[in-house]
Specification:
homodimer
């Protein structure tokens, strides 16, 4: 994976965008979480539903996540690879978060994340996220 | 989502690539399944493991899928959106397959699919797939 062609500046911009977004998640900062996202974002999240389309539905997936997160929120990038062209890019990542159990204990959770981005009005914009854990 | 900028020919090429790949899955045709895939493909599949890296590990995920599939195999694209630049593209899809249960019955399964592609030696090449169902 990694950069494609002459895309190093785009790769650096995308890396910074994703790291800032993950930092905003850890801070429960909704303005930061939504700052670089398309109004039409298509979200495939870990819990149901099958899909969430649009920024309002996307924001609700974070309400749900925070409702089951310990404090402080854990949302760490363990590995990230960026494939960036000049207009379209995608990012693959292995992530770690934590979930608060009903008995008050905390479970660590490894998950997979794919992010799709398009350059819109000269700004990299997140148009797709796919978060998941293996089934079964 | 949809095409970006002047990418219509790329979008058409990618649509054909994905449709041919899905047809190869339905036919259990491994040459067709692997034909447009990178040796370094990173696969996030529905069942464990968390990730499968490289074409040999990718091929094994299909052995596992076919071992639990009914005949004929169901692997249908319900909706597909393509974001294609000139060098990098990603595809989001809602998919349907079926799983054979232990009692011999068959369960339909809706799942989400994200595919990442890079143009390598002027050929669109799949470098990433992320298949999942919602957890819980």
């Amino acid at each position: 994976m990694g950069a494609v062609g002459k895309s190093r500046p785009d790769e650096a911009a995308i890396r910074a965008l994703i790291e800032n977004w993950a930092r905003a998640v850890r801070a429960k900062n909704f303005d930061g979480i939504l700052a670089k996202h398309s109004n039409d974002i298509l979200m495939f999240d870990v819990p149901p539903p099958l899909q969430s389309q649009g920024i309002d539905a996307y924001k609700k997936t974070w309400d749900l996540f925070f409702s089951s997160s310990p404090n402080p929120v854990i949302f760490d990038i363990a590995r990230m690879d960026i494939s960036a062209g000049e207009e379209v890019a995608f990012v693959t990542a292995l992530m770690r978060c934590a979930v608060r159990e009903e008995n008050g204990s905390q479970s660590d959770l490894e998950f997979r994340l794919t992010i799709g981005l398009c350059k819109i009005s000269d700004q990299w914009t997140v148009t797709h996220e796919h978060h998941s854990i293996p089934a079964g």
